[in-house]
């Protein structure tokens, strides 16, 4: 683990990240000697820091430390966390003027290649996401809703779950952003009130625009998924994963999906990886 440019195994317990979840993070893939979507991940951290009013200014040092940490490393997940640091009284962050950055490395989940090939089975999570426009989109450190979603999912036999807000609008899945195809158009969720605006989601939207593929950003209830032709889930680590089926445990509805167009998009995404990677 690297903390503020130094190898160490601990961070102060008084750090506001530990006390209040006061900070943000991003996770990116290092594969085949390249940091995938590196620039986009840094921009997402900048956006989150601006949203949270964290005055972090060590971007050059952070970039250098990330790159240096990978010089003799094989494929891995790189997690970068920025905290507000120590200070302030209670929730009030006034006085916390020295943000920290933390870099850790982890194994890439071994099941992701199988998911990409065979697709995944989804259920619908009973856990709902609250609406908070001020935090929507960013990947902040308050992840208790996601912990509850994963706890619930672990009690099922499904790979992933669709997660909705309190009004049953589709937001995301437990691992990434969700896209669905219906009536000649792709759709993805409007994330202005809940959810994480993923780096891969934004890249998929850009690729769709480049290829002339229509995609609408919408607020739709989860029932709409049962009349869709295709679904896929995406994030920066697993890229694009087709969905083969969806089950609603409340209404006992089951729907199977085609994967042809998702596979084509998967191919398009794979073709762009090298152009978006920083070679180490």
Helix content: 25-40%
Please describe the biggest sheet, giving its number of strands, its sense, and whether it closes into a barrel. 9 strands, mixed
The top level CATH class name of the largest domain: Alpha Beta
- The domain count comes to 2
The assigned CATH architecture of the largest domain is Alpha-Beta Barrel
The portion of residues forming beta strands comes to 25-35%
CATH structural fold name of the largest domain: D-amino Acid Aminotransferase, Chain A, domain 2
Overall mean pLDDT:
96
Please count the helical segments: 7
Low-confidence stretches: none
Would you count the extended β strands for me?
Answer: 16
Radius of gyration: 19 Å
Tell me the structural class: alpha+beta
C-alpha geometry: globular
Please provide a written account of the structure:
26% of the residues lie in helices and 32% in strands. With 280 residues, it is of the alpha+beta class. The strands form 2 sheets. Strands 7, 8, 9, 10, 11, 12, 13, 14 and 15 form a 9-stranded mixed sheet that branches. Strand 1 (2-3) and strand 2 (6-7) form a beta hairpin. 38% of the residues are buried.
Provide tags for this entry.
single chain; 280 residues; alpha+beta; D-amino Acid Aminotransferase, Chain A, domain 1; D-amino Acid Aminotransferase, Chain A, domain 2; 2 domains; 7-stranded antiparallel β-sheet; 26% helix
């Amino acid at each position: 683990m690297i903390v503020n440019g130094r190898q160490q195994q601990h961070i102060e317990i008084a750090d506001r990240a530990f006390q209040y979840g006061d900070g943000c993070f991003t996770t990116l893939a290092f594969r085949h000697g390249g940091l995938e979507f590196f620039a986009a991940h840094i921009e997402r951290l900048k956006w989150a820091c601006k949203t949270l009013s964290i005055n972090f200014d060590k971007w050059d040092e952070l970039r250098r430390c990330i790159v240096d940490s990978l010089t003799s490393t094989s494929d891995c997940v790189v997690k970068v966390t920025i905290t507000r640091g120590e200070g302030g009284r209670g929730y009030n962050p006034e006085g916390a003027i020295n943000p920290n950055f933390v870099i850790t490395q982890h194994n890439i989940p071994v099941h992701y290649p199988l998911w990409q090939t065979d697709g995944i089975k989804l259920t619908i999570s009973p856990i709902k996401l609250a609406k908070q426009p001020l935090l929507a989109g960013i990947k902040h450190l308050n992840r208790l809703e996601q912990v509850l979603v994963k706890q619930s999912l672990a009690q099922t036999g499904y790979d992933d779950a669709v997660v909705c807000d309190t009004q049953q609008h589709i937001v995301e899945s437990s691992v990434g952003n969700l896209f669905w195809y219906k009536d000649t158009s792709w759709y993805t969720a409007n994330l202005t009130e809940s959810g994480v605006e993923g780096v891969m989601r934004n890249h998929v939207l850009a690729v769709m625009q480049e290829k002339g593929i229509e995609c609408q950003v919408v607020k739709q209830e989860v029932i709409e998924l049962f009349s869709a032709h295709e679904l896929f889930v995406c994030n920066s680590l697993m890229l694009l994963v087709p969905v083969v089926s969806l089950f609603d445990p409340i209404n006992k509805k089951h729907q199977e999906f085609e994967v042809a167009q998702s596979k084509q998009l998967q191919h398009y995404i794979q073709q762009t990886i090298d152009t978006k990677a920083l070679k180490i």
